[in-house]
Amino acid sequence: MKYFASLQLLGMLASLFASYAEGADEIVIDWFIKSYKDLPAKVGDSVRFEFTNNHNVYIHPSGTCDETDSVALDIMSGSAFNTASYTFVEDDVGAKTFACQVSSHCGSGQILTFDVASADNNTEAPEELEAPETSSGEFLSLSKGLVSLIVSVSLISFHLF
Fold first, then answer.
1. Closest-CA residue to 98 (of 42, 20, 153, 29)
2. Which domains does the chain have, with CATH numbers?
3. Which of 27, 35, 48, 30 is nearest to 105 (CA)?
4. Whole-angstrom Cα distance, residue 40 to residue 114?
5. Cα-atom radius of gyration of the chain, to the nearest Å?
6. Contact at 8 Å (CB) between 32 and 55?
7. Over the range 5-43, which residues count as b (16 or more CB within 10 Å of their CB) and which as e?
8. What is the pTM of this model?
9. How far apart, in whole angstroms, are the C-alpha atoms of residue 93 and residue 144?
10. What residues pair up with 30 in beta bridges, in sequence order?
11. Hey, which bits of 15-110 come out as E strands?
């Protein structure tokens, strides 16, 4: 039984490590009428638009306020707080534009384009954390993803055994 549990744990570890290796990010946008600058993203990243009042989120293939072939991510929020989310895929590599189609919101600046890079083109090194000095005087350097993975595995191990 312990052998089977160990195999399950190894499978979960491999899955967790793969997700950390990908390095997908969540980009949160406070969605209201203003001018937005283009933002970088990569395949696997997700964007979450948070908004109140009368707004919505549409994908605009034209890259402009032209609503031809636009696709809704969410309906109008009315007066309640609302969100709309999207995860970038390989077909999105290049420019991906989102806009609000309520009244003249898009024309007033509520339009945002992401410059989406392929997941394979991510050459950014993982952010490093400095660990405290060890007793031998050497420093340990661990990535945030690895630290999270170790904590997750510890919690899983605790529940399995």
1. 29
2. 1-23+125-161 (no CATH), 25-121 (2.60.40.420)
3. 35
4. 6
5. 21
6. yes
7. eeeeeeeeeeebeeebeebbeeeebebebeeeeeeebbb
8. 0.62
9. 27
10. 50
11. 26-30, 39-42, 46-51, 57-59, 71-74, 82-87, 94-99
| pLDDT tens digits for range 4-45 | 344 343 344 444 334 443 589 999 999 999 999 999 999 999
* Contacting residues for 34 by C-beta, under 8 A, at least 6 apart: 109, 110
Instruction: Give the closest residue to 98 by CA, choosing from 114, 112, 77.
Output: 112
Q: How many CB atoms lie within 10 A of CB 51?
A: 21
Nearest Cα residue to 94 out of 122, 117, 65: 117
pLDDT at 79: 58
106, amino acid identity: C
Pairing of strands 141-143, 128-130: antiparallel
β-partners of residue 129 are 142
Answer for the pair 117, 43: CB distance below 8 angstroms, yes or no.
Answer: yes
Instruction: Give the model's pLDDT for residue 22.
Output: 57
77 pLDDT tier (thresholds 50, 70, 90): low
| Bridge partners (DSSP) listed for residue 159 | none
Distance of CA 106 to the CA centre of its chain: 24
